[in-house]
Structure to design on (356 residues):
């Protein structure tokens, strides 16, 4: 039995990829293991999992980093550091076998130094993706780095060839997200393009709004919230009028809103993985997204890879995807990423790690 601690500052505050990863993996990983989730948000009961709230001032994360953010000296980074420092006595006392810091920055540094003292193993899951944030995590040489795609694995091995790097992708709950889900009744003309995302600059949702505006018979349903909500709502209502709707449903209701759509899209510039792709495909929606190697690996033949900065082409690809009969190709692609399979991969890796 392994004792595993997840440090997830934003759990209980938002439901993004990282927070979904923590809960979904822990629910399946709990058998034969003792799981503790430390978070700043309110502790919600999870059967068989210990969820501990560490009192800290916290709010939804902001992604617009200035120079202080890049140096991990912004208010958000300092709050995560204080949260992590409060955990030091507990981590020492409880003697965890595996500690998984999920918020990067000074949290990674603190946990690395702490595990050198306690003898625990540090596992990093590459949710930041290819770039400076995960390069910082790799710099501190975790006992194992989990790449979410082969592209990320190749990148990590170039930075630290001596470090153990494995590929384990993110997953999707196929009992919750599937083609049999009943769609919500919403006041939006069909066919509908669905976009589920945090409303932050690098997601480039304004490109999606402009592309849907070019595709005259499509409507756009945005599921999410964030620092750009006012700007995007203003743009969407101005150029799409009645063809635009943004909602912030609870995570449990997301499958029913995906099922309203004919196609899913996310025009983000970069994406470590994108759990929303899997959720959409599990509901049998084709995906139109940015063309790169990582997303090709995730989407396969279940959609179209495009250049969202070219509005005319992006609009054309959305129309093509909405008019194409993909049969069960999206759902079959999602089957490769069941959380049950992902949990077994993590369990095998951790057992092997503890043997050494």
């Amino acid at each position: 039995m392994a004792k595993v601690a997840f440090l997830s500052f934003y759990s209980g505050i938002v439901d993004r990829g990282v927070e979904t990863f923590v809960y979904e993996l822990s629910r399946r990983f709990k058998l034969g293991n003792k799981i503790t989730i430390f978070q700043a948000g309110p502790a919600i009961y999870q059967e068989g999992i210990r969820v501990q709230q560490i009192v800290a001032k916290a709010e939804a994360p902001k992604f617009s980093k200035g120079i202080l953010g890049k140096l991990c000296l912004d208010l958000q980074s300092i709050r995560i550091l204080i949260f992590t420092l409060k955990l030091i006595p507990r981590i020492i006392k409880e003697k965890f076998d595996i500690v998984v810091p999920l918020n990067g920055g000074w949290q990674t540094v603190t946990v690395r130094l702490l595990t050198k003292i306690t003898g625990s193993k540090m596992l990093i899951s590459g949710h930041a993706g290819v770039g400076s944030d995960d390069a910082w995590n790799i710099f501190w040489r975790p006992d194992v780095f989990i790449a979410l795609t082969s592209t990320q694995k190749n990148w990590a091995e170039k930075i630290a060839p001596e470090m153990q790097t494995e590929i384990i992708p993110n997953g999707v709950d196929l009992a919750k997200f599937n083609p049999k889900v009943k769609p919500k009744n919403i006041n939006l003309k069909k066919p509908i393009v669905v976009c589920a995302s945090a409303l932050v600059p690098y997601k480039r949702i304004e490109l999606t709004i402009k592309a849907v505006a070019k595709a005259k018979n499509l409507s756009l349903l945005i599921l999410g919230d964030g620092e750009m909500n006012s700007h995007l709502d203003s743009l969407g209502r101005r150029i799409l009028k009645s063809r635009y709707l943004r909602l912030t449903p609870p995570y449990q209701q997301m499958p029913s809103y995906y099922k309203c759509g004919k196609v899913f899209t996310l025009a983000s510039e970069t994406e470590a993985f994108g759990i929303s792709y899997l959720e959409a495909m599990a509901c049998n929606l084709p995906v139109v997204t940015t063309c790169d190697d990582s997303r090709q690996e995730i989407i396969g033949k279940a959609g179209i890879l495009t250049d969202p900065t070219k509005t005319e082409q992006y609009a054309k690809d959305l129309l093509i995807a909405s008019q194409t009969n993909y049969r069960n190709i999206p759902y079959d692609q999602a089957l490769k990423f069941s959380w049950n399979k992902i949990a077994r991969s993590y369990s095998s890796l951790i057992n092997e790690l503890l043997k050494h």
